[in-house]
Amino acid sequence: MSVSVLSPTGPLGSVSGLLQVVTLLSLVLLLLKAAQLYLRRQWLLKALKDFPSPPSHWLFGHKHEFQKDQELQHFLKWVEKFPCACPRWLWGSNFAFQVYDPDYAKVILGRPDPKSHEPYRFLVPWIGYGLLLLNGQTWFQHRRMLTPAFHYDILKTYVRIMADSVQIMLDKWEKLITQDPYVEFFEHVSLMTLDTIMKCAFSYQGSIQLDRNSHSYIQAVGNLNKLICSRLRNAFYQSDFIYRLTPDGRLSHYACQVAHQHTEQVIKLRKADLQKEGEMEKIRRKRHLDFLDILLCAKMENGHSLSDQNLKAEVDTFMFEGHDTTASGISWILYALAMHPKHQQACREEIQSLLGDGAFITWDHLNRMPYTTMCIKEALRIYPPVPNISRVLSKPITFPDGRSLPKGIRVTLNIYSLHHNPKVWSNPEVFDPSRFAPGSAQHSHAFLPFSAGSRNCVEVHEWDPPAPEEAPLTPF
């Protein structure tokens, strides 16, 4: 006897069959993905055969080797055991090829390889595709466009602005230490560097340090830094879809909104200023424009102005990069000097002898404080503000010792480990400013606090400022 399609068994049978088909397809796709990951891992193991590392789990990688807050220090044990470079497996086929040798670094930074998609993609919702994340011809055009903002002639005019911002911070500290002799100063230094970059690069009038609303931007940046570091360590957070559903993902979205509100307000205020009568004429008469004015007045090679999206990305990038890494570097320098009072006193005496009856450091002073410069360099060696940078090989590479890697490998230049490599620096954990005494010899790529090569920090011209009588140099 036939079964009516109107009977309950008809639809149920159809649903059951559909579920079976979906289950079967899901299983096939899962097996295909597993096979793809297996083949990828086998290819990587073959490509990395000349670079040994500690045994790793096929799924969890070297996770068991590293504690959350001791990663940099623990990796130094690998540096001593595995010369030049080694792979660190994160999970499955995800790994980072860690380089900490100056000869290897020189080869890598001398190539035009693009920045790797991982881990920089996590920065995109925050700072967009500005100079930090761009690659290829677009990066070249933006770099060439922005370089004049860091010409020596324009930097000279900023020294007094920087000194004034520092003085505001010191005045705040004078009041704080009457209440508590201990000061958590990173936030204060961050506000000072944000105040400086706002006035120097974004034509801002006023004091960020005295504006309570600016603290929310500093807090948002701090939260984003922590959230991105946490996301890098979590395999489940690699998916944008999954991450957006988590508490961390929602906090990251909110922090990005706060950061964007700050930079959008800066752009809006400057655009309004440029609409005032006679303001554009003043800009045209300037020999050197500041950073934001260059962006607002820029014409690309196709004759079009910078798009709003590109403009925002560059402002977000330099607002972050221009104050946060600088604040980190200054804070660690102050920490290193506080931990070594003898060197701190020598710096104080050198600067006091320069100042005499003057109240502020001037441009002409900058090349007349050799001992302070030595201490700054040594602090940046021990505590580099950016501990690593990544590239993806656009073609095969052969290192000086004959070992090679194929195209497509993600290479991470571990600056922290390079600066602490005992084969490069004797007693690397000791604070010894004499390493950078005038006339001391080092490998050209042993000290890389600002990277090197064509993608070094755009603000860096030469590490030592020129003598006053020297002609200005363009950094590009």
List keywords for this structure.
476 residues, mainly alpha, 6 strands, 52% helix, two-stranded antiparallel sheet, globular
Please summarize the sheet with the most strands.
Answer: 4 strands, mixed
The overall strand count is: 6
The computed structural class is mainly alpha
What is the 3D form? globular
Cα-to-Cα separation, first versus last residue: 87 Å
Helix content: 40-55%
Number of helices: 19
Q: What's the alpha carbon Rg, rounded to whole Å?
A: 26 Å
Strand order of the largest sheet: 1-2-6-3
Mean pLDDT score: 88
Order of helices and strands: HHEEHHHHHHHHHHHHHHHHEEEEH
Strand content: 5-15%
Query: Which spans of ≥5 residues are poorly predicted at pLDDT below 50?
Result: 461-476
Question: In brief, what are we looking at here?
Answer:
This protein is mostly helical. It is built from 19 helices and six strands. The protein has a four-stranded mixed beta sheet with strand order 1-2-6-3. The protein has a two-stranded antiparallel ribbon with strand order 4-5.
